[in-house]
## 1
Amino acid sequence: MPSIGAYLAIGAVAAVVTFVATPLVIRFANRVGWVYEPNERTVHTRPVPDVGGIAMFVGFLVAFAVSRLLNVFDPLFARNFEPRGVLIAASIMFVVGLLDDVRDISAPAKVVGTVLASVVLVWYGVTMFLVRLPFLDVVYLSSDWVPIVTVLWVLGMTSAINLIDGLDGLAAGIVAIGAFSFFLYSQHLSEGDQLLEPNIGPLLSIITVGMCVGFLPHNFNPAKIFMGDSGALFLGLLMAVATSVVGGREAPGAEPAAGQAYFFLAPLFIPLFILGVPIVDMLFAIIRRARKGQGLATADKGHLHHRLMEMGHGQRRSVLILWTWTALLSAFVLYPVVTNSGMAYIPVGAAMLGLALYTVLHPQIRRQRAAE
């Protein structure tokens, strides 16, 4: 299978192409009026282009094409229809998001588009095969359950990324950290012959990292462009595919490596922890809106990033805090898996405690409370 260096080269292609394409998209969006106007629930005060997903999609297409042309990636593409399914499903998800950015389509229409993309994944076999339940056993999915699980997984991932996209650079940074962590996890499984090969998950993960890294310089506060639903739904689809084909597959007869906690090999929990911030935010949003009798698509200012700003943290500090939480959660699950050691709990736990104290006891927060 491809080396880490080959994967990183493809990630670099995605980053450079996305970085170069984004200013062109900004110019085009301003010319045609594809901008997001400020309102009572936004934190920006001027119209900003909101179709950054176009640049990301271009970066994805170019990086995907380059990988197809390189001989080292032949095992992923030769006699394998899964890449074609990913390309079609990703295109559907991108178009659905772009239509919402430009024409503001309804929530049911977005769900229909997401289901359509999921059906394409199922048709081409881009699905998880099993679920390893912690402390129990491996549950192999029947043909009846595969479509349902795939639709729910894609809906969950796309919703999580979409909901967290509320501050400049927040979603792009969290996805970049999460995708890179998952890339490292997939490489560890591959090196231990625990992953069913060929597997397109590592390639999608590193391309996702590259797109986000290339987009971030234009998206960090003060943002020149937002990724919009075209970017958020597209990224969610890629992460859903990567996590399902890595976490939901294993080589025949593969067993957890000696010394590794069974819990950390559960495909249900590795992606949940790595993408913990957007998923927790989504769960709180569902509970919050259900209590108010509102639909999930109803916008509000109760997300984690909004609460941090209400505490007195500015946009940049709020984003950096949530980025750091994502990195710590990733380290929490990856370090024991990669090193066969549980000693990571002490430094990672200390770092989490320090970050929590920093969040609530920052000098600016204390001054604001004193002023109240």
Note: The beta strands are 35-36, 48-49, 130-132, 138-140.
## 2
Amino acid sequence: MTAQPLMVDLADVHLTLTSAAGPVNILRGVTFQVAQGETVGIVGPSGSGKSTMLAIMAGLEKATSGRVSVAGRDLSALGEDQLALFRRDTLGIVFQSFHLIPTMTALENVAVPMELAGRRDALDLARAELDAVGLGHRHDHYPAQLSGGEQQRVALARAVAAMPKLLLADEPTGNLDGNTGKGIVDLMFSLRQAKGSTMVLITHDPGLAAACDRVVRIEDGRVVA
């Protein structure tokens, strides 16, 4: 059986930040791989380095040392502008706190990344994605007019609209009640499958982690299981 190509390949990744009290080791030699098409749940206690690892995969944080390869690109070799283009063309990211633009409607929030990428059909694609997440009646509503679950659906539509190779989710149900969170999870997995994306998600929810192909545990900046 032929092994799937790697979407994410981190090798001996360290991240050390400076503080008034001295250096702080956030990641301590993380080695972590994700095959194309795989879904991986990352679990571990708060402060263990989970979100930092996701930020490094997204090119939002630079590793102090080690190799970071995502979708065949060596992220350490890319400048800030190149990293921005890489994220635009390769990634979809869903955050716990939605990160919607408050002065834009749901439709505009979903369309804007595609408009920045020069897609002339951005609004049509955005409408289709909002319809797909059950918000066909909410196109013209602003974030403040939407419930938490609806805002996360908009964020999810925005993340998958450009058919990303890699979908990253950081506690996507963290600000939602149980039933609403379960709906978001089901939707996220079905959209990921429809788009053919690889997915890495951080969660404190054992049930959500168990829905993934594989679960990776991080403690104190290291992969322990």
Note: The CA atoms of residues 171 and 203 lie 5 Å apart.
## 3
Amino acid sequence: MTNSKPVVALKRYERSPDSLRELIGLCGGFDRLKPEHRVFIKPNLVALDDRYPMALYGVFSTTRLVHDMVVLLKELGVSDITIGEGSARGKDYGMPTAGIFRVLGYPLLEERYGVKLVDLLEGPFEDVHFEDFALQVSRPILETDFLINMPALKTHNQAKLSLGLKNLKGSLSLKSRKFCHGRGRALDHHLSLFVEKIRPALTVIDGIYGLEKGPFYLGKAVAMNALAASRDPLGADAAGSALAGIDPETVPHIKEYADRHGLSLDLDDFDFRGTPIQELRRPLRWDSTWREDDTGPRAWDRLGIFGVSMPKYDQTVCTGCSGLYGTILTMVMASYTGAPSTEIEILTGKMMKPSGKAGKTMLLGNCMIKENRKDPSIREAVLVKGCPPSLQSVFDALTRCGIRVREDIYAGFRQTLFDQYKGKEGFDESFFYL
């Protein structure tokens, strides 16, 4: 009798490329792969700050595991391999995907194995219909014969977890990514849809490092040495959730996809093979806590920061502006010398409304400006134009609000975040650089 349960493999990472080879063998990940197939590998290389040092643990899929995947494919005689990502970047900060590839050493994969490297944000795109709307999806992703989805195991401040279903968002054009952060439908709803039209043949979750309070550099990395894989996308994400100590039923986009298709998220309804989950599980905290009055993170209480209000991000904050969120929060913390002469509020996304109490209201990004610039309750509007705004325009706006911008202190803080992993057991930068 055939086992009807989706097969999910779990393995402790021990050595390359054997650990990945054993993992894929456990779930039959290559059973349908043919040497003549066009294979596309989609890692998570979300964004790389090119101004300040940035630790990659848990933020990026490890280059080591991507390299291992290429080695295994070449062993099977596959010659047509493409690696692609559409890394986020701002107007005057962040690297394009090609630059990230160079930093990580991906061009060596071109030289050694003939791999093609693609920036998915450069197109071409194809309109793919979902419900009553269409999204622009990268054509190379759609045209591949065998898509391998290789997300990092990390928490996400807006989506709770960023695993396989979420990683497919990187296949979209910038315009479509912004559409997914609209006010009409929740981000989670869009995340639950991608896999219905962008179907991976194999999902490998890279949990060599996990990330708490992700998805970017303010998160806290954890050495987990955990790998999960499945030909079933839901099974892979259920396993990733369990490895992070999070019930997949509580991850909105995963649950919505399962419910829409009548699928179970009960772990007993999957055929887990390999290392038991309990031997690999490492609970990850997923969200930062805000003050009860939503005027800023609770960390501001410990630092005595008052007179500045920044409500908690919602799902309408696009990736570009969310990348500035941490910069603003930490810049306020780094530069705060006492309550400003007039109360300041900083609004983001597409739905936030001014309180009517602030002397100055900073509207971050074109969406927030369009939403509130004519609101009569705003005493003085400080407009930060752009989609997303430039880093310098953010610094200028903070200065206009009476916050003394100390880039030197902020740079020192970023260096501290980077240095925290140096010499720490289990953390090895060579996992990211070829």
Note: The CA atoms of residues 137 and 172 lie 5 Å apart.
## 4
Amino acid sequence: MTTPLLQARDISVSYGKIEAVRNVNLTVSAGQIVTVIGPNGAGKSSLLKALMGALPSTGEVHYAGRNLNALSLEDRVEAGLHLVPEERALFTELTVAENLVLGGFSRRKEGAKALTETQDEIYALFPRLKERHRQLAGTLSGGERQMLALGRALMGRPKLLMLDEPSLGLAPRIVREIFQIIIRLGEGGASLLIVEQNARAALQIADYGYVIEQGRVALEGEAEQLQSDERIFASYLGGNSGHADKETM
């Protein structure tokens, strides 16, 4: 049996007396796109931050067969985990190109040539970033900032890319563009774990899905199965809200 790329067991996160994530089990296999969906405040973002080591948590996180519990956030990045946070967290006073260079910091030992080649690949994936490579990140539009946040994470050649609400605050046209890029990454063999408010859109591009409600996994299954069951949306996700036609993806 193949060892999962990421396996989280009994992950819990608390803010004081408030338990935001409760005994969550989650698995991501190599080359798989997994999404975590659910209502606002369900604990989805807290779960990603716990997996990344950005929030204290209990339980175990295994990555490529290795226990990560004792590793810091920086060590997890070195190991190949990258998180694109909801707030993007760009260096707004640096240019697009400078942000990308910083994204490759964990690969600095590979030399400038390797990083330049990766940067060229990012520009091919996001032509708009190439057009604006000298522009300050703080002057970019919301969609361009999301592209830069994705590009910066990809500079590190992550083995597992985690995205927190990639469509948040973006116009529908830009959301379609971002999701098309995620599809291309998946087709290229990338492994992704995505927290997303647009449940239908997320399930359309994912292989497997988890529905989180009040910090717990209420339901899980193949994304196609979850997507086709209207009762699931009515029970857990507020009916047809967040609907995205397949033709738009």
Note: Residues 1-80+159-241 form a domain with the Rossmann fold fold (CATH 3.40.50.300).
